[in-house]
């Protein structure tokens, strides 16, 4: 069956916030999305774990689309636009909304699994650039059936008051289980050297993110990826269509955008946190990439937030009046 190359944006909002009172997402942290397709393009400020339970279709990730069929597991990081199209508009997709604070709380235990990093960091980045399903986690029918009860329990608990601790235990347990499967698949499958190289290249981008405030050399990055300098540059450009330093620049600007919108840190402090040589360097690069100075960008974000808060207050007053 033919499928669309792209999907339009979600009509309610382009971005969902876990604490936005309009959507009450915290009251339904786990659910099945059934038969209301296509699920149009949107993003959010939390991680989302999806498991295809029934139906066949496509998963749209930014400007790519990938096969989606029973057993496929997708992890969508914050601020990544995605959606789904299913044949005959029929299907069932399990959704688990994962607050970043939950992952931070259990980070020491989760990071003890190599599979966790593969599932939550490496795989989502690879999906943006590689379409081959052999790279990614897929549950066989037996594992999918085994997990159905756990998914059902999570959904039941998400609707119960005063069951937050139990819900969290089940949610983290599911993440542990899938991470273990991912690690097992990675260690036991016949992975060719080219695939290993690509995975190590993506893992080096995690190293960049963790050390963004520091200076990098190509030798350091290649050493981290355990490949030669020449191989690193070649594979990196093939995968990301950018040089390593162009990619680092992009990471630094994106992190600056995040800090400008979510903190009151000074431009000088943000420049240091993002790895720019000084505030003048950050202002120059930021304006080249966004068309705005950091101060102008922060002002525009605050103005939008003020308008949104005013609109929400007006809507609430109307509801109370009715």
UniProtKB/TrEMBL annotation:
<dbReference type="InterPro" id="IPR014710">
    <property type="entry name" value="RmlC-like_jellyroll"/>
</dbReference>
<dbReference type="InterPro" id="IPR009057">
    <property type="entry name" value="Homeodomain-like_sf"/>
</dbReference>
<keyword id="KW-0805">Transcription regulation</keyword>
<dbReference type="Pfam" id="PF12833">
    <property type="entry name" value="HTH_18"/>
</dbReference>
<dbReference type="Pfam" id="PF02311">
    <property type="entry name" value="AraC_binding"/>
</dbReference>
<keyword id="KW-0238">DNA-binding</keyword>
<dbReference type="GO" id="GO:0043565">
    <property type="term" value="F:sequence-specific DNA binding"/>
</dbReference>
<feature type="compositionally biased region" description="Basic and acidic residues">
    <location>
        <begin position="313"/>
        <end position="322"/>
    </location>
</feature>
<dbReference type="InterPro" id="IPR050204">
    <property type="entry name" value="AraC_XylS_family_regulators"/>
</dbReference>
<feature type="domain" description="HTH araC/xylS-type">
    <location>
        <begin position="202"/>
        <end position="300"/>
    </location>
</feature>
<dbReference type="InterPro" id="IPR018060">
    <property type="entry name" value="HTH_AraC"/>
</dbReference>
<dbReference type="InterPro" id="IPR037923">
    <property type="entry name" value="HTH-like"/>
</dbReference>
<keyword id="KW-0804">Transcription</keyword>
<protein>
    <submittedName>
        <fullName>Helix-turn-helix domain-containing protein</fullName>
    </submittedName>
</protein>
<dbReference type="GO" id="GO:0003700">
    <property type="term" value="F:DNA-binding transcription factor activity"/>
</dbReference>
<dbReference type="InterPro" id="IPR003313">
    <property type="entry name" value="AraC-bd"/>
</dbReference>
<feature type="region of interest" description="Disordered">
    <location>
        <begin position="301"/>
        <end position="322"/>
    </location>
</feature>
């Amino acid at each position: 069956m033919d499928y669309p190359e792209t999907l339009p944006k979600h009509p309610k909002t382009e971005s969902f916030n876990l604490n936005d009172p309009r959507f009450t997402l915290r009251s339904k942290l786990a659910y099945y999305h059934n038969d209301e397709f296509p699920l149009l393009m949107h993003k959010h400020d939390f991680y989302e774990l999806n498991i295809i339970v029934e139906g066949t279709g496509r998963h749209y990730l930014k400007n790519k689309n990938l096969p989606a069929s029973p057993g496929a597991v997708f992890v969508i990081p914050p601020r990544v636009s995605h959606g789904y199209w299913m044949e005959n508009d029929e299907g069932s997709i399990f959704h688990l909304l994962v607050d970043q604070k939950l992952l931070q709380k259990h980070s020491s235990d989760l990071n003890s699994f190599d599979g966790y990093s593969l599932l939550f960091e490496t795989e989502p980045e690879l999906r943006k650039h590689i379409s081959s399903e052999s790279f990614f986690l897929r549950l066989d029918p037996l594992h999918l059936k085994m997990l159905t009860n756990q998914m059902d329990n999570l959904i039941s608990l998400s609707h119960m008051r005063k069951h937050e601790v139990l819900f969290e235990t089940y949610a983290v347990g599911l993440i542990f289980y899938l991470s273990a499967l991912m690690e097992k698949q990675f260690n036991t499958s016949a992975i060719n050297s080219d695939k290993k190289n690509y995975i190590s290249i993506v893992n080096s981008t995690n190293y960049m993110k963790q050390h963004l405030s520091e200076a990098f050399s190509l030798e350091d990055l290649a050493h981290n990826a355990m490949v030669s300098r020449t191989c690193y540059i070649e594979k990196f450009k093939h995968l990301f269509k950018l040089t390593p330093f162009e990619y680092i620049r992009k990471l630094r600007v994106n992190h600056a955008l995040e800090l400008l919108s979510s903190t009151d840190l000074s431009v000088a402090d943000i420049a240091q946190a993002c790895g720019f040589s000084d505030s003048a360097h950050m202002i120059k690069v930021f304006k080249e990439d966004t068309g705005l100075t950091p101060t102008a960008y922060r002002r525009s974000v605050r103005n939008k937030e003020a308008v949104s808060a005013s609109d929400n207050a007006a809507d609430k007053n109307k509801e109370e009046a009715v």
